[in-house]
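Q: My collaborator sent me two sequences in one message, no labels, and asked for predicted structures for both. Can we handle them in order? The first one she listed is below.
A: Yes, handling them in the order given. First sequence, followed by its structure tokens:
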Amino acid sequence: MNRGHIDWTTTTISSGANERKAHNELLNLLDEHSLTNTQYQSTREDKNLDLQLTTRPSLIKNCENQLTFDKVVTDYVMFGFLWTMV
């Protein structure tokens, strides 16, 4: 699900996106299952590649990245999310 050209605040695909069909398929899949991303911060460079999906976004007041450690392991950075519930 590495679709880094989606603006998650508007659920639109940027004009310069490669693989537009795959981006659309992801958005359609989430829509079909009433899933909403609550994680809007960049998680890899300037892209949001790590999603936090829910069917009840009204329960999430805030979601922010919380680095658990800053060591890069192979091609991954480990981090967690802190959700503030309503």
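Q: And the one she listed second?
A: Here it is, processed independently of the first:
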Amino acid sequence: MLGNLNGSTWKLYEYDTLELYCNVSGKPEPMLKWYHDNIDVETEKNVDFKHLRSNYTMTKVKLNRNDRGNYSCVASNKYGESTLQFIQLEVLGRFFNLFICHGGR
């Protein structure tokens, strides 16, 4: 899922990919950090970051239930700090069909 839906709740499934983006500009150019439940996501696994001009993207692949929670991007420069994006993510379990075949005589 890709988006910039501030304040919304998203429901994704385990093994899905989360892609969030923020558009940031300012002088001096702001530094942007992504947070999951107020913890910097740079320490998490399966996360990739891209930055092209004023567009910042965070991609998190192979979601699992531990990835649920609040996500935000925070831009800062010497003049201050601003939270630009905030979503709540719910990660739902995948249901698999299991077929059991019994052999008989």
